[in-house]
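Before a computer can learn anything about folding, someone has to put a protein's shape into writing. The three-dimensional part falls to structure tokens, numbers that each stand for a local backbone shape. The protein below has been through that process, and both of its lines are reproduced in full.
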Amino acid sequence: MLYWHWSPDHVWHISHPLIGWNETMIVYLLAIASPTHPVGPELYYTGWAGQSEAAQLYRKGWSGSAEGATYANDKTYFGTKLAVGVGTGGPLFFAHYSYMGFDPHSLTDLYTNYFENNRNLARVNLAYATENPKKSKTYSAEAWGLTASDGPTGYMPEAPDAEHDLGTLAPTGALASFPYLPDASLAAFKHFYRDLGDKLWGVYGPLDAYNLDEDWWSPIYMGLNQAPITVMIENHRTGLIWKLFNSNPEIQTMLKKLNATTENLRARKSQAAN
């Protein structure tokens, strides 16, 4: 598998494996695509989608859930089945960061197509906010998209589950989901601007987050959360960034390598089943 934290800030100790499901798929795709120092496409399945005990413990560790510990999930939440995702899917930025440039329509692996999976992650998130099990003043069918953001006690990864639902909402969650749920994203946009704009909107657009239960409004704008809004709205409108990114020959080569590896694994599984 691939790692991060190999730096002088961490005394050159390789300490953190990159294991999906989370925001780091793009690291594996770019590593396979590298024209000078590529990794083998098999690393996608041994690392990112790895089945090892260490990979399963890693997923359970950050999520608190055994569902999706083997990468595949296939459980149904709020009426929507998640092919891939740990528990109810985690913070919604998992469906954004790797796919600002890379078009998720392009990738179908052994488990799912990633545009469809990301759309289902957004559906689960929307349904959770609509049902609003903790009865937060913040959430509704027009106020959804639990994700990581600034919060009353600092930066926190909100997610649609009991442990990670802290009542704070960042506009980026719904607004960066325009490619997946355009109608619901537009309804959230209108709510944030028309109903909450006097406190939530400023010279640089939406503040990072808010929490109505605590009458808290983030004092900051965060580029980390505003950038996905801009990029993903354009991907919804024209697909421009996706088209530009996927037009790179290295990306097409990577997809061919990964598709061949996927088909080989699929054939081996079929033979073993027979």
Q: What stands out?
A: The chain has a mean pLDDT of 96. The beta strands are 3-4, 16-17, 72-77, 80-84, 148-149, 156-157, 201-202, 205-206, 210-211, 216-217. The radius of gyration is 19 Å.
